[in-house]
Amino acid sequence: MKEKKFSLKNPSLQSILTSLICIVLGLLIGYIVLLMINPAGAGTAIKTILLNFLSRSSQAAQMKALGNTLAKTAPLLMCALSICFCYKVGLFNIGAPGQYEAGACIGLYAALAWHMNWVLCLVFAALAGAVVGSISGALKAYRNVNEVISGIMLNWIMLYLTNMVLSSKKVKDPASPYTIKLATGNKSALIPSAGLNKLFSNNTTVTIAIPLAIIAAIIIWMILAKTKFGYELKATGYNKEAAKYAGMKEKKNIIVTLAIGGALAGMGAAFLFLTGYQEWSTTQTSVPGMGFNGIAATFLGGLHPIGTIFASFFIQSITDGGALINKSIYPSQISDLISSIIIYLCGFVLFFKYVINNWISKRDKGGPNVNDVPVAAADAKKEGGDK
Amino acid sequence: METPYAIEMVNITKRFPGIIANDNITLQLKRGEIHALLGENGAGKSTLMSVLFGLYQAEEGVIKKDGKEVKINNPNDANDLGIGMVHQHFKLVQCFTVLENIILGVESTKNGVLQMDEARAKVKALSEKYGVQVDPDAKIEDITVGMQQRTEILKMLFRDNEILIFDEPTAVLTPQEIEELMEIMKNLRAEGKSILFITHKLNEIKAVADRVTVLRRGKYIGTVDVADTSKEEMSRMMVGRDVNMVVDKQPAKPGKTILKIENMTVASKMHSNNAVKNVNMEVHEGEIVCIAGIDGNGQTEFVYGLTGMEPLVEGKITLCGEDITNDSIRQRSKILSHIPEDRHKHGLVLDYPLEYNMVLQRYYQPEFTSGAGFLKRKEIREYSERLEAEYDVRSGQGPITIARAMSGGNQQKAIIAREIDKDHKLLIAVQPTRGLDVGAIEGVHKNLIAERDNGRAVLLISLELEEVMNVPDRILVMYEGEIVGELDPKKTTVEELGLYMAGAKRNAVVNADTSEIEESEAIDATTGRKEEA
Which of A167, A379, B361, B431 has an alpha carbon within 20 to 30 A of A123's alpha carbon? Predict the structure, then answer.
């Protein structure tokens, strides 16, 4: 009993617990929506969403589908890392989509117009993201412009700038609104598979981008947890005044943080577009969801770089799973709707953490009823679930 | 039977972990009187008012309104009982007009549309009745601090409050504004309002109050009629006759100059004028110099300017013979240690563990960071453990305790340990004993004296009279951003110090004659009397 009481206060366990609550709640509400539209197929549909690639018939098809999900997890993870890193420093990098667009723009332009190899393209994409990120950073540091405002505006600016730049004859397929396929335009710009594709039924979009993204997550975690640099950034995030008192350059820290966040998001774009998974549509009029989904992945991952790896995979998986829902029973928008409901609920992680902590402190004040704790805990969870 | 008291707080006791903030305190406010609540910082005045206002619940004691016992569980209950408060830091919406602020929360509407005319007429009537002049259509951000305060007063009157609490209302006002406020308070009394006036300025009590209740260290000292009590007597009640905090120290042996400040002027964030005006001073090694003064007389800005947190408007700072006027905070911190005024705002990263806070000023040094930029966590852990042991910093889980979870006293000890242990020639300690209990205060004072005896220069900024009298070797009094006097703590009295702090006396350089006279007075200082010897 004592152990249980202790473990509930343990922050990492709390994070995992709250994330799970969010997932369960999201699925539950998603299920209710499916029931409301058509009760007949709801059970199958929610199963399909959850199982995603596993719902395929053959093992080969399963592996191929898993490969696709992983290929899209890599860019999502990079966006989540971008947001997670900035969040730890007290900045809400909602400008990640804009930084992602900049990365796509310069990454693809370098590949198709300048015929660079994938390493250089990746570096250019990261630099482009960093530049866009540091614009928000500089505005915040020197003009106290909220990074959320400047980030959202830059998202749109970068979208149309990217459409414009990638409409150039050198990079756009003249017959369609898309950029030229890298397989025909510049093979050297494709991120190599290094044999990983073999594991996934020859899915060529499975590249070393996936392990690179995971390595990035580990590096970000190391920076935040183990280095002097991370110490400074986190101190600035927790208490700007104390950071200033301790002689840290809090303005510089803000700019550097958003530049790094931008570089991560920019690389994320490269991890998608340089795998040949898809091409940039120069006629798109909405900001790509990748950066926004990164927000959900960050919170679902408990604001921990390693946690975001799993959260990104989960979110990508239900998104892909949603696409497999039987379209003859449900309208085609249902897949996006269900996955957005789940993603939306993922944003409630902090809320549930608050609820749990609140409950713990109330219980601690309550005094002698320590023995009832495990039962009470289970009740509280149920109550949360019912809502 | 009609009681003469509008509000009574009887035998109130309020405890916080490790400290009794209010120990059996009784406060009785008569109808139509101005009743002052006097006490030093940390004496328990704010806690008592928070209990009255429903922000805290007292463990013992009762509150009576017109003789009937009442329960005040939250500020709304207090409002319902007609209790209103002007907080030290105003609670106004900056971008609203005066009128909008006054009606905020009690707006009358008709079909969802605000009925401003009625409110305007009432505000106008109130403002004429009590002589509280405001411009109802001016925005808060555009008006003076004095008018903001009058807006707060009108807020209370608009809600028909009968019991008005003023929490250190003069701390932020200019002398003229203070005079106007005193007039307003007298008008309010004449119209039958009962006023509780929290302050530690004796002149103001003398000027307006009828009775005064004195608190010291959370204890009730007494209630006296202002007319029959001299300022000296009140200050003795406030500070305590028996100075049980006699600090054991040898005479100072000042050496060469460590800190030299010339013509320092620092801008104010609150007003358009300068908070620190043309300050000149020196601190030598082996001495403790104290800057005394009432809160808000430029001490905070002075320290910001000295430590590099705010730029100087004018002036020059020389530390150990080097001009540091334009040095960064980090550069200065190599020879200067700073125990900040606000330990939560500046002194600690509350969400960091204790060990990380222990190296807040040194984390970048090779001792704690490897060449590759990785923190040496083992060294940090050991360093933190050593400081905790040496300075008796207590915490739940040792180095990994989150700073937020520690008690205020131990947080302060951690800061002091960090600042004293690092290399420095000058220690700046700003209100280092703020909010600490008696035992902890003693420890801090010993630390400061040990620093001095180790040949460091110590600059103490304090609001506590007792501390000012006992710890330093030299006192400089700051009033409205200027150094108005230099006193020798051995030769002066609390009363004289108080006169300087209140701006009633001014003496930029102490001349030899007055110190002679003060010496003869000092003999009687133990009795607290400033009579002719």
Answer: A167
